[in-house]
């Protein structure tokens, strides 16, 4: 069967691969690329000899009688990468660099796009399997109850509530702080709650968000924050400011930590105007570990906090809200109306319990590896890309692609692609996934599944890509 017959119809490319007989050496694969219908299609071939190292997993096996494929069992890896410049800008939040259904058996993958990619350990799965459960909507799941008590202790709050996700934790908290029509919250213009939660606070809670500038370290501009509080209320022209929302660590600015002094100042301001403070603490434990304080020391400045289990902590599902007993009672009602009554949720809470008991060590290791990688990039001292080392405070690294001739998206693609040259030079193919955060900034995030060795391999890959660019662009 000819290769083109096996390709999806929308890719009407005429495939004219070159199979080199000279490549009968150790590596026989030869990638070729075509541009068609705005997609670049990359094919990587595999010879019949099973001892030959494969370059890539693929989505399709092709047994061809066509002359060009003679005696070649070609495994085709079709990766559709947007070639039009419009799609080469900022990547959509969850866009993947992987071809659909493309298994990667022979190459090492280091996926640094997000700590949400963390997967539960075998120990966690065992704990989930053993978990005692009951109907949590009746308040009868013993594991959930134990988990909530534990969390309340860690957060230093009167009570805690298990919810499905960080997004639900934030939304439920906002719903319970802002209970009347015409209320408003103040939030950073780079906050996850504002940018990446579908405007849920407006859409569902009916609360309008008023934006305050997030500084490059994730903190709020305090002068601006005060100026945005509606002081004219109850003048009927104005909404009533009810709530200030903070984020710690701050995702968009690269896992930056809000210093305790900043939290204290926000608290004082909130008290002066009778406002509540909610903390999006999706990565609160990262902040606490990096600051060397107990999580409760951070939370003491807030009326409520939401903490995610699924990021650096590595549990598969869930988040938790901490706050005063009466507040959590209201949250329970809000969670239910949003469909968050989870019945035998002890299976999930069991993973959360274990994740929390290991959180400090996990986060510390992640921070160390992120710093190690960033230090390696800094030591390269390359005009191609750089990191601001002091701003690497937790598990994220923001890599800036400084060379204007290099598109950050393309840089990411090169970190993902594997060439013969790479295998020859590094001894194996490593595919690194990264995430273009904005314009020229690429985000890399460490989590439980990313080992020392992965970190080293990712750094070596980056060095290789930088070298390649330097040679191609004449950068010395
Ligand atoms: C700072 C922050 N808050 C909230 C969330 C939302 O968490 P979830 O994905 O569990 O809804 C995220 C997710 O990445 C986050 O980074």
TrEMBL record:
UniProt xrefs under Pfam families: Beta_elim_lyase
Domain Aromatic amino acid beta-eliminating lyase/threonine aldolase: 111-402
GO cellular component: cytosol
GO MF annotations, alphabetized: L-allo-threonine aldolase activity
SUPFAM superfamilies registered for this protein in UniProt: PLP-dependent transferases
Cofactors (names): pyridoxal 5'-phosphate
Segments passing through the bilayer: none
Signal peptide residues on this chain, from the entry's feature table: 1-21
Swiss-Prot/TrEMBL keywords: Lyase, Pyridoxal phosphate, Signal
Stored InterPro entries: ArAA_b-elim_lyase/Thr_aldolase, Low_specificity_L-TA-like, PyrdxlP-dep_Trfase, PyrdxlP-dep_Trfase_major, PyrdxlP-dep_Trfase_small
Gene3D superfamilies noted in UniProt: Aspartate Aminotransferase, domain 1, Type I PLP-dependent aspartate aminotransferase-like (Major domain)
Protein name according to UniProt: Aromatic amino acid beta-eliminating lyase/threonine aldolase domain-containing protein
Source organism of this protein record: Pleurodeles waltl (Iberian ribbed newt)
